[in-house]
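User: Predict the structure for this protein chain, please.
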Amino acid sequence: MTTQSRPLQLGLAVAAALAGLTLAGCENKTPASEQVSAGTHLDDAVITTKVKSTLMADSLGKGGDTSVETRKGEVMLSGFVDNQAQADREVQLAKGVEGVTAVDNKLMIKDGKSTAGNVLDDSVVTVKVKSALLADDSTRGTEFAVTTNKGVVQLSGYVDSADEQARATSVARTVEGVQSVVNDTSIKK
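Assistant: Here is the predicted structure, written as structure tokens:
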């Protein structure tokens, strides 16, 4: 070991220890049966990245518009697609990614063509819904994927309880511009 690498190794050891203490000090309200290890979180993040990359690289699809979330190897695809063939293609591509144990298809078919005004309005509604969920003390807003098409808001992701699902729907419905809410969240197992 060189003299120059010792400070680097010491710095890395201190950073790792501090990260461990920080994680140990975090309050965890999730029951032990539903908790996921740090390794599983990392594996899930890698799977999510691989699935997103696969969808975006596909020349036939528009995977960049699809939300991808992973929990314990199960991938949830959500968002709006143009047709059933696109949805089926994205599901097949996701199933082909190493580490994926199952695919939960929450993709919704768009209702006709959107105008530039629809797209802009939907973007504003999506931001407002995300902001409302983040501001609400009863929901963990960062846990939700929110997509909007012509005022129809789709909520997806993994939540802790049916109460959190219901609260998220209620919060989203109060946002100006929301026509309806489809809550496609799943309760953590």
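The domain at 116-187 is CATH 3.30.1340.30 (Histidine-containing Protein; Chain: A;).
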